[in-house]
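seq:
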Amino acid sequence: MMKRLNLLLAVLGVCILAGNAYAGTIDVWTGTAGNFSDGTNWQNGGPSAWTNGGEIEFNTAATDATVNDGPWDFSSTMSFEFWGGATMRIADGGNLKVRKLYLGTGGVGNIIQTGGYLNVRGSDDCHIGHNGGEGNYTISGGTFDVKKLSLSGATGTLTVIGDAATIMMNRLYLGSDRSGNYGTGTLEFQIGATGVSPLVIDAGGEFHFDEGGASSTVNLLLSATAAPAADIVLINNGDNVTLVTTFDTLNGGSAAEGATVLLGGNTYKLTYAYAAGVDAVANDIALVVPEPATLGLLSLGLIAIRRRR
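struct:
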């Protein structure tokens, strides 16, 4: 009987160790600036040596990993976690698929994408800002394709520069991660002379906006040195329901429906009820060039305010 019990305990121990091996850390970036594919930048040999599922860690400010080749497909196994000021760059030629992405877990994590392709559709977890940390994702080119994108944590910021990128998702959560965790989510658009890349939510997808009340904050930051004198779509909301809430701030001020902003010498109105794309549903977030009559009224209002002062 004792031998059988010992054998059972031994088998259980092996199973527990196997489970921990799968769920634990597989590799840690130990280099400074270098290529993602170079095994000498890793503790355990790098991506060509990874054979089972688990967590990949980028955990120091010295980390500056560049993905510029591939394809690397870890969409069914690997979770990537960033903190400690770590940065990963995705450049032309880079092709990376991962199961989960935690950007800024209890610390600071950064991704800068200028080209290439990052896919995070292996699960429901892609956090920019996580577990009280700060996540910063900046994209000016390439494709960012994600199943569920959450901007929260202490702060989670997605910055879109110009109109050369493609940004797609099935679900977007601003100010929350849909698991009862709230924080500050910020969308920043740096608009170029030909516009800016919109966030495109799949048809049949979901858009969850500032659900934490006083516990969550969502901010919109807009800038431009030059901007087109035409309507600019910021979020194409697929065929989802019309939004019933707004950003908390636009460049630090009011972000209510119809709020105005001057960008690159042009005046725009912010709307949450724009109809873009083939769905023709008036639920997209956009900057609209006011009609001439509206511009005239705005000018009269400004004149009246100046005279009162």
